[in-house]
UniProtKB/TrEMBL annotation:
Domain of life of the native organism: Bacteria
Biological classification of the source: Bacteria, Pseudomonadati, Bacteroidota, Bacteroidia, Bacteroidales
One GO CC annotation: ribosome
InterPro entries assigned: Ribosomal_uL10, Ribosomal_uL10-like_sf, Ribosomal_uL10_bac_type
Organism: Phocaeicola intestinalis
NCBIfam families (alphabetical): PRK00099.1-1
Record's protein name: Large ribosomal subunit protein uL10
Keyword entries, A-Z: Ribonucleoprotein, Ribosomal protein
Family: Belongs to the universal ribosomal protein uL10 family.
Function according to Swiss-Prot or TrEMBL: Forms part of the ribosomal stalk, playing a central role in the interaction of the ribosome with GTP-bound translation factors.
């Protein structure tokens, strides 16, 4: 591969890392063509961009980015590496957990501005809440007291109405 081509690929990888907020480094060595194709289909349906890269080019792309120090991931760049780019941090982890035999296996991940190295981090990554899930939790917490007040007022209103109606019907 020519040096100019490598420079273009490194630039594209750096742009993709910036575009998506989170990425996973996955080992797909033990997968055959049919299993890899199936994984790609599942990634596409889940909104994940999966790219198989040369480790040295990804290493240079991560080095070229000055806003984050990606050095904790460099030891994971060995063997066959597929990169799963995503905008929602926990989606690739949930997808990888569907595979019971450990293939493909997680090498490392950068999610929610944190580094997760090793396959044992998969459970932690799967439990990370997405931005929308956190917002939904906050809204539910904020609505809960208001719902309690409204229901108390409504039930109290029925009680007061019943008392007034009984008093009005009572003979003098």
């Amino acid at each position: 591969m020519r040096k100019e081509d490598k420079g273009v690929i490194i630039g594209q990888l750096a742009d993709t890392v910036k575009q998506y907020g989170h990425f996973y480094l996955v080992d797909t060595t033990a997968m055959d063509a049919a299993a890899t194709s199936d994984l790609r289909r599942k990634c596409y349906k889940a909104g994940i961009k999966m790219v198989v890269v040369k480790n040295s080019l990804l290493h240079k792309a991560l080095l070229s980015m000055e806003d984050v120090d990606y050095s904790p991931l460099f030891d994971s760049l060995k063997g066959t590496t597929a990169v799963m780019f995503t905008e929602v941090a926990n989606v690739p982890a949930k997808l990888l957990k569907e595979y019971k035999d450990g293939v493909p296996s997680l090498k490392a991940a950068y999610a929610e501005e944190g580094f997760y190295v090793g396959a044992e981090q998969l459970d932690a990554l799967a439990t990370i809440k997405s931005k929308n899930e956190v917002i939904a939790d906050i809204i539910a917490l904020l609505q809960s007291p208001a719902k309690n007040v409204i229901s108390a007022l409504q039930s109290g209103g029925n009680t007061i109405h019943g008392v007034l109606q009984t008093l009005a019907e009572r003979p003098e």
